[in-house]
Design brief:
flat, three-stranded parallel beta sheet, alpha/beta, Rossmann fold, 4 domains
Length: 711
């Protein structure tokens, strides 16, 4: 059998050769040798039967089928994967650039720019892809959505009445938090009817007060809020929500625009008091005083979380100089309450668009926001952006950035631009901004895009320099009217209810009372937590009466012991060690006292008598001239943030707090901060040290507008 297999023409090893010959025969019988042709002829079917065909092409075709299918599927998968990447890029493009085409301007004066990155066609995506399902990545709203659904969500969230800027923030958790708050509701507040009526009531109060004053005191300056009335429901909502979250005090700083409206409709100042000021009658019977739109005020207002004390800081004409003053006042109040994270006292700063972009004290104050000596747990900034500064409205003149708020990007503060003609979007943004501040203890900016209905003041004629802008303003019906119409069409209010609100408010004005936001009654001498007793400072004692400040020598020598005792294993620099040894000798009486020794002893006496001391300035801890050494530095420190020791904090149990702060390289904002701190903490010694005498020139505005002219 084995022999026969080896000799057979059909032996397995010969089969491929014979198969190839046979296929050649089927194509061309003359192409094979005659012997083989004769053999193959015998294999052919009878006449009329089906002709045989070559097998190998068929086999190759069948073998190629899976490969072809796989190749086609691979091509399809690659195309889908490419589009998936582009969809994720499209999502992020809206987060970055949606603000450029958002509906922010109530006047709608300018054509929106074409931002190609927001167009699906830029990524090769077209109508055929709209119903294709894609992964949404970090987009909030569903793990997989059609492209049509994704675009709708993105445009509602980022291209409507809200324009958000936050993607430059370095902390991913903060970005994800903002994305969740915006994208989960698609930029829609969804308020109930009661809340929407409250918004209309506040808008009505804001507009009606301005119009009432305009007719009652014709031609008198008041720096009207008209065109920006949405500021009133914004502040109302901000304070109510702050109180609900446990905030007990809020300090507001603002310039003159809309100040009278805030006094009456937010802080509850009685209109009768305001009318008296218009008529030149001052309740304080002062021989002189500031104009009414610079006046400060304070009141207690009711919130869902309890009583909230609100203080509006006095402010001079220098628009933004009040910013650091407010921050200092807040820091003092937080210190008094032991409010270490800023959850109890909230700073709120209102800005104008031109001033926010133009005045250097804004940058200086922002730069202090996260420093150890000046942070206040985050500030809510509100830019009342009426798109004009006095007579200048061309951004080619007023700033070098795209938006007036861009300066806030330097501290990674998120910025929420919002159209003031959409009050519900404004309140939604207010909620997000406050919650962000409370969650992350950082500054946040609301850019309230509105307009200025009148001139810079009520005697000014804006058409002289702004004919284009004021053609649009003259046609605008007013935010209140637009919102009232919207609520009436949706059945939230009756057709005549909006006019009834106006009539009720005017009636209250005629009676000199506040119908919308009365302040709570004074608490009959009951002391609130964190209150300061100013009585000893109002006794009429002349400021130049001599006071005995002497301290017994024995007491000074006692204080010198903890003041110049070096902690165990703490290694001083050799030059500092020599100063410490000399000062120990001074305490014994072996050497005369130098300035640094006398200064530190003076602080020590106050601290041990219960008076806090706060000293700040550039290089204040060591002292510019190597003289103070209020803080020592361990020469063997292992970590950059450890190894510092301040003896004045370790004098005795129960002593008052001592703070010595190396300030940032600023004079104006730092002195403003310390002034604000001192006005809220009269029992503390608050000092600012100019590094050199002429450095005080950089803080001259604070010296002139606050210190020299203060009460």
């Amino acid at each position: 059998m084995q022999l026969m297999r080896g000799n057979s023409l059909l032996y397995g090893a010969n089969a491929p050769f014979i198969e190839e010959l046979y296929e050649q025969y089927l194509v061309d019988p003359d192409a094979v040798p005659g012997a083989w042709r004769g053999y193959f002829d015998t294999l052919q079917p009878a006449p009329g039967g089906a002709q045989d065909v070559a097998h190998s092409p068929i086999q190759r075709a069948f073998a190629a089928l899976p490969k072809a299918a796989a190749s086609g599927a691979a091509a399809t998968d690659a195309d889908l994967a490419r589009k998936q990447v582009y969809v994720l890029q499209l999502i992020n493009a809206h987060r970055f650039l949606g603000v450029r085409v958002a509906d922010l301007d109530p006047l709608n004066r300018h054509t929106k720019p074409v931002v190609t990155e927001l167009d699906p066609a830029h990524y090769g995506l077209g109508e055929a892809d709209m119903d294709t399902t894609f992964s949404t990545g970090s987009l909030v709203g569903g793990a997989r959505m059609t492209l049509r659904e994704i675009l709708k969500l993105l445009r509602q969230t980022y291209c409507g009445s809200i324009g958000a800027q936050y993607m430059y923030i370095s902390d991913v958790a903060q970005k994800r938090w903002i994305q969740n708050r915006l994208e989960s509701v698609r930029g829609l507040a969804g308020y109930d009817d009661a809340m929407r009526r409250r918004i209309l009531e506040r808008l009505t109060a804001a507009e009606t007060l301005e119009r009432y004053l305009h007719t009652k005191y014709v031609g008198q300056k008041r720096f009207s809020l008209e065109g920006g009335e949405t500021l009133i429901p914004l502040l109302d909502h901000l304070l109510q929500r702050s109180g609900a979250q446990g905030v007990e005090e809020a300090v507001i700083g603002m310039a003159h625009r809309g100040r009278l409206n805030v006094l009456v409709n937010i802080l509850g100042k009685q209109p009768g008091m305001l009318f008296a000021e218009f008529e030149g009658i001052h309740a304080e019977h002062l021989t002189s005083g500031d104009v009414k739109y610079h006046q400060g005020f304070s009141a207690d207002i009711g919130t869902p979380g309890g009583v909230l004390h609100v203080a509006l800081a006095f402010n001079p004409s220098h628009l933004e100089i009040v910013n650091p003053v407010v921050e200092g006042s807040v820091r003092a109040r937080q210190h008094r309450r032991r409010d270490l994270d800023g959850s109890k006292v909230l700073p709120i700063l209102l800005h104008g668009d031109a001033a926010f972009a133009g005045q250097g004290v804004v940058m200086e104050t922002l730069s202090m926001s996260q420093t150890r000596g000046y942070r206040t747990g985050g500030t809510v900034h509100i830019v009342t952006n009426n798109q004009i500064g006095f007579t200048a409205s061309d951004s080619r003149d007023t700033r070098s950035s795209t938006y007036c708020s861009d300066i806030a990007k330097m501290i990674d503060a998120p910025i929420f631009h919002v159209n003031a003609d959409d009050p519900e979007a404004v309140l939604l943004v207010t909620e997000i901004a406050l919650d962000y501040r409370m969650q992350f203890n950082k500054d946040v900016v609301i850019d309230l895009v509105c307009f200025r209905k009148l001139g810079h003041n009520e005697q000014d004629e804006p058409l002289v320099t702004q004919p284009f802008m004021y053609r649009f303003i003259r046609k605008h019906p007013g935010t209140r009217a637009l919102y009232a119409q919207r609520l009436a069409e949706q059945g939230v209010i009756r057709a005549d209810e909006a006019d009834a609100m106006i009539a009720a408010y005017r009636k209250a004005m005629d009676e000199g009372r506040n119908s919308i936001h009365p302040a709570l009654e004074k608490n009959n001498g009951h002391k609130r937590k964190g209150d300061v007793d100013w009585t000893p400072f109002r006794g009429g004692t002349p400021w130049d009466v001599p006071v005995n400040t002497a301290v017994p020598l024995e007491r000074l020598q006692q204080l010198a012991v903890p003041l110049y005792t070096v902690p165990e294993k703490f290694v001083l620099h050799s030059r500092v060690q020599k100063i410490v040894e000399d000062r120990i000798a001074m305490a014994r009486g072996d050497l005369p006292l130098d300035w640094g020794m006398a200064e530190n002893l003076a602080y020590a006496t106050l601290l041990t008598e219960g008076y806090p001391v706060r000293l700040s300035g550039q290089d204040a801890r060591r002292g510019t001239f190597f003289h103070r050494h209020a803080t020592w530095h361990d020469q063997n420190r292992k970590e950059w943030h450890e190894g510092a020791y301040t003896p004045l904090r370790h004098l005795e149990a129960g002593q008052a707090d001592f703070a010595v702060i190396d300030s940032l390289l600023s004079e104006e904002a730092v002195l403003g901060f310390e002034y604000g701190y001192a006005t809220a903490e009269p029992y503390s010694l608050v000092l600012w040290e100019a590094q050199f005498g002429d450095f005080a020139n950089g803080a001259q505005v604070v010296i002139d507008q606050f210190i020299a002219s203060g009460e």
